[in-house]
Design brief:
The complex is a heterodimer of chains A (523) and B (305). Chain A is α+β, with helices and mostly antiparallel strands. Chain A is built from 17 helices and 17 strands. In chain A, the strands form five sheets. A five-stranded antiparallel beta sheet of chain A has the order 3-6-1-17-11, with no helix packed on it. Chain A has a four-stranded antiparallel beta sheet with strand order 4-5-2-16, with no helix packed on it. The two termini of chain A are 42 Å apart. Chain B is α+β, with helices and mostly antiparallel strands. Chain B is built from ten helices and 13 strands. In chain B, a hairpin with a 2-residue loop joins strand 7 and strand 8. In chain B, helix 5 crosses helix 6. The chains are: A alpha+beta (523), B alpha+beta (305).
């Protein structure tokens, strides 16, 4: 039996949609894909920027570097220091870095950078845990008093009694100690505060609160230690942060009395070391200054990369050493083209061709949408100027276009050169824009200008830029990119949408305006 | 009646009338694709190919005086035209009226022609224009053909609407049946082009009677010519049955089912087909004040009857 045309279309769309749904369901059910993994995560790049004015003698600077654990993944670590030698060693759980050099001059710079992918970690503490009578040696070491953690001071003992921290189970004791340490007035004091001083003053910054927590916990018979690190936020800062860990049922469980986190470590905490340590130590006689520079960026979730394995284009690109940016651009192009189709056939917005806005958006993925708009406007200005100059010569089509290309290239280079002279670093990047795409743009604009006039060409230009921005917004969505990488069958949905739109006879939005005279009046 | 229910009634009305109006998507899917095979487009796009078909089918068209197939033919064509008056040079594949040169009388003393505006046109300049055309300067392609037509002297009714050139009748046909018609009149504002978007004037013609009944300028209905003040409505077009007849025959001469046939009526009241368009525009709906839907239905019914 022959199928009628609408049925053929309906079946095609249905088959594509069902095929996509089936493949996606199979991956989630049988292969363990998780849809939530398409959501990007925030990765931070942290740089230690240490500056020292030496006097020409030997210099040593000692600090801590982070390790990967359940809470944080450290990658792409690199040292860009010159003139000083970096040596690393493990001291207990801490990674110690020592930069040393002889005859270190004024203005020496240590630059050490790494990327960190942090995760929030929280613990469910069972309520009925009793305080153990003995601990393994590694944990028991964290019960002893230290210089600034006065476990045995009478005031500490008395306070523990007063709050009932010496009674009940582990969790109950920690809750009371946490509440007390958290109740201290906050104080933006940068120096060191010992546990006793913090208790006496009733106010402290993070390190005093944390020391008081540790002192009380140890006094209550629970091993506890200071943790030092950073709170990750974009920008440059000198402030580090301290919180604590307590030994509960064989795990070091994090607490932050300063910011009120109980048995949890927020995502943006970067752990650098444990113990009552100084973050930086250096030889005397040098001027030492430091800051931490942090940049945040969304990156695909590592779980997605690890588990999306059926049609593993991601792994393929890694093996071929092709950039991830290329992969996502390629996979997003059909999505961008669908968007252009929607704008052209449903909205009625004219553009330079079907692919060009999507191609422009893809090209702008690297430089940013603003540069894309700027590059297009520069090209269009060059084309308009050259056309104005060439019309009286009445040249043939192809040579005219070749002249346009020369003008486009010269315009971009001139812009970069002027921008460099003027010190506008950002503007120099227009030259990075793919010239092939701009050349097509120039040709399209020229054709439109000659065939339909300046008004129509201007409309197409405005439409192209608007659709390009829309494409850029959609195509640069990291979640959508990872979705298509993990579930390439989503592109079948794009095909289905195009099949439907390919037979859609509805009026374009712009035509409601164009034919408003025919539509007006009451029924 | 409350404002809300009035708005609802307007919306219902718009939705009903929407079914009658053809947008570009619907025109392409319902009219152009099923009726016009892409490989036959050149018969409409190339004016010379169309004219060959017209000649074979006996469809009246302006007389072709010369065809210039390439650079080698330019001197011969210029020589053949020496001494002749009143002709038009056109590119076979021109777009938007580009490359059309209207030539008036031959000035034997000066050895040159006079252009429509009276400026001299030397044989050398004419040769260069022909060369440009065959090189595709006006066609956005690598090469083209130029042809020379006798200049049509329009019927006084049309000359009265626009004195400086031709205004043509556009008859939209579906499988050779006329569907809708309008006159496209250039204005000084539109720069002598009949393009309705650039300020040209559209005048709707009743298919049954050949009378003008509506005129549109810049999207607004008008009763008089915005520049000359000449009345535009109720004009009775000359030789109307003959106009429809040549439109039908022109449409039948090519294997394209949905067409815009451009017809002029000359001083001797003869309808002549100027060219055909395989993707006729939709503005004719605004000019006629109604959608193509009912008109298409009526046209196909009329044919079946």
């Amino acid at each position: 039996m022959a199928l009628s045309h609408p049925h053929k279309l309906g079946l095609t769309v249905l088959a594509l949609v069902l095929g996509t749904a089936g493949l996606m369901a199979y991956k989630v059910r049988a292969l363990g894909y998780r849809l939530a993994d398409i959501l990007p995560v925030r990765q931070y790049e942290v740089t230690y920027a240490l500056d020292l004015d030496g006097h020409g003698g030997d210099v040593r600077v000692r600090s801590f570097l982070p390790s990967s654990d359940a809470h944080q993944t450290i990658s792409e670590e690199r040292d860009q220091t010159s003139g000083l030698h970096l040596s690393q060693s493990m001291e207990g759980p801490n990674r110690v870095a020592t930069w040393s050099g002889a005859d270190v001059p004024n203005g020496a710079r240590i630059r050490h950078a790494f990327k960190v992918l942090p995760r929030r970690v929280s613990y469910d503490l069972p309520a009925g845990l009793e305080v153990p009578s003995a601990y393994p040696p590694s944990a028991a070491a964290w019960l002893r008093p230290e210089k600034e953690i006065q476990v045995d001071a009478p005031e500490i003992r008395a306070t523990l009694q007063r709050i009932g921290g010496d009674q009940g189970g582990v969790v109950e004791r920690l809750r009371r100690i946490h509440a007390l340490a958290a109740s201290l007035q906050p104080r933006p004091f940068k120096g060191t505060t010992d546990a006793l001083t913090a208790l006496r003053l009733g106010e402290s910054s993070c390190n005093g609160k944390s020391r008081l927590f540790v002192a009380l916990a140890r006094a209550a018979g629970i091993p506890a230690r200071l943790v030092g690190g950073l709170i990750l936020e974009p920008g440059a800062k000198r402030t580090s942060h301290q919180w604590v860990e307590a030994w509960v049922a064989g795990h070091w469980v994090p607490f932050c009395p300063t910011n009120g986190h109980f048995a949890e470590l927020p995502e943006r905490y970067l752990t650098l070391y444990v113990g009552d340590e100084a973050l930086f130590r250096h030889t005397a006689d040098v001027n030492f200054d430091y800051r931490f520079e942090t940049h945040g960026a969304l990156v695909p979730s590592p779980q997605a990369k690890a588990t999306f394995t059926l049609f593993d284009v991601w792994g393929l690109f890694d093996r071929l050493r092709l950039p991830f940016a290329l992969l996502r651009t390629v996979l997003m192009l059909p999505v961008g083209a669908l968007l252009v189709v929607l704008f052209r056939n449903v909205v009625g917005m004219p553009t330079f061709g079907t692919f060009l806005p999507a191609l422009l958006a893809a090209s702008a993925g690297e430089t940013g949408a603003g540069y894309g708009v700027l590059a297009v406007l520069l090209v269009v200005a060059a084309v308009a100027a050259v056309r104005w100059g060439l019309t009286r010569l009445e040249l043939l089509h192809s040579p005219t276009l070749a002249i346009l290309l020369a003008a486009v290239v010269l315009t971009l280079l001139t812009t970069s050169m002027v921008a460099e002279r003027a010190g506008i670093a950002a503007l120099t990047r227009v030259t990075m824009f793919p010239i092939a795409v701009l050349a097509i743009c120039a040709e399209r604009f020229y054709l439109s200008l000659t065939e339909h006039g300046a008004r129509a060409a201007g409309k197409e230009l405005a439409g192209t830029l608007a659709v390009m921005l829309a494409c850029h917004a959609v195509m640069s969505s990291l979640a959508l990119q990872v979705l298509v990488i993990g579930f390439p069958e989503v592109l079948l949905l794009v095909v289905a949408a195009n099949v439907y739109l390919g037979r859609w006879v509805g009026m374009r939005l712009s035509e409601y305006r164009r034919f408003r005279g025919l539509l007006g009046g009451e029924a | 009646m409350s404002a809300l229910s009035r708005a609802a009634a307007r919306l219902r009305g718009a939705l009903v009338r929407r079914a009658e109006v053809y947008g570009i998507n619907r025109r392409n899917l319902a009219l152009v694709y099923p009726n016009n095979d892409r490989r036959h487009y050149p018969l409409a796009d190339d004016k010379l190919l169309a004219k060959e078909r017209f000649q074979a089918a006996g469809v009246p068209a302006p007389e072709t005086l010369a065809v210039c197939e390439g650079l080698y033919a330019v001197p011969g064509v210029v020589e053949a035209l020496r001494g002749r008056s009143q002709f038009v040079v056109k590119p076979a594949n021109g777009a938007g009226g580009g490359g059309i040169l209207v030539v008036g009388g031959w000035d034997a003393e000066a050895g040159c022609w006079r252009k429509a505006g009276g400026e001299p046109l030397s044989p050398r300049t004419l040769g260069r224009h022909l060369a440009d055309v065959v090189f595709g300067v006006h066609s956005n392609q690598l090469e083209d053909r130029a042809f020379v037509e006798r200049r049509v002297e329009p019927h006084p009714l049309f000359a009265g609407l626009w004195g400086d050139g031709l205004c043509d009748l556009r008859v939209v046909t579906l499988r050779t049946s006329p569907v809708m018609a309008m006159i496209r009149v250039p204005t000084a504002e539109s720069g002598g082009r009949a393009n309705l978007h650039q300020g040209g004037l559209g005048i709707a013609v009743d298919l049954a009677t050949g009378r003008t009944f509506r005129a549109l300028h810049r999207g607004r209905p008008v009763e008089r010519h915005p520049e000359s003040g000449a009345p535009l409505l109720g004009l009775e077009l000359p030789a109307w049955p003959a106009v429809l007849d040549v439109a039908r025959r022109a449409a039948a001469a090519v294997p394209l089912g949905y067409l815009g046939v451009d017809v002029v009526v000359d001083r001797e009241v003869r309808p002549l087909v100027l060219e055909i368009n395989a993707r006729p525009g939709l503005e004719i709906q605004n000019v006629n004040g109604r959608g193509l839907g009912p008109a298409l239905a009526a046209a196909t019914e009329g044919r079946a009857a």
